[in-house]
Design goal:
Helix content is 68%, strand content 1%. By secondary structure, the protein is mainly α. The chain has two domains: 66 residues, no CATH class; 187 residues, Bbcrasp-1, CATH 1.10.3160.10. This is Antigen P35.
Amino acid sequence: MKFNILNKILIIFTLITFTLIGCDQTPSFTTKPEDTQNDFLNPEIDTQDDIYNSTIMQRLLSAKNNFQLIEPLINEIEIRTKVQNNMHLIVKHKNNTEEDGQYGMEWKAFKFLKNAHNNKNLNSIENKPLRRLLYSSLDWQKDILIKFGTIFNKIEQYEGTHQTNNNAKHHLTKMIFAAGTEHVQATFENITDTIYNEKDNLHKFTNQELKKIKAALDQIDNIRHKWQEMIIELIAQHDANYNDIQNNDQKLINHIFSKYHTTLEKEIPMIQVSAQDIKNILKQYITNN
């Protein structure tokens, strides 16, 4: 019996999709296999996923050769899979324990920087959730956090005692911290939670809305990875003592301003625009339905 091409695509896609839905496919940028042993497991969620998988299978079979029905299903599955994987990663990070010394920043950078919302120093117990956002933005990689802390301490110390490219005190220090916490990780976690709460209603959205949500999610992931790659690159340059930035703090500051200022000031904050695009779609749907 000759199969229609769409049937072949449907069969292959279905097999691949249900393999992905059952697994956490979101890698951290330097994660080793042993780092994933505490992945989020919840029997209730597993049961819900089984029900969803069964429902999706029925909808796929009902769609048959109708690509106008199949395409939104594909987009829905991809969004749901990405969001579930992101949620697993977030829960895993929240179960991690902060090391003593706050990765070398407790009595250095964190001691002299304050959270404007509570006027407490960043090393305080009240600001532990804020520090967790920074660690999570770098996937809680101990070696990366320690090396980041070394560089961050140098930047804070220099900006605390010298006038830099901007007259505002701790301008670059605050910009870096905000990039990892307020922009990258807080936005990533918030939008993941928002979509996760609506995951069982995704089938009600139009295909065009699903495409926009998927594109915005991809952009959020790309910006988060851009932040991580920027820090990895800066650490490598510092380790190699590029242009003497390891020994000369002023050269380190100038190097970061020259190479990464646009990324920190303009590109990374765009993650909030992508998140708002998704919220606007969800809000419009809720309002109209």
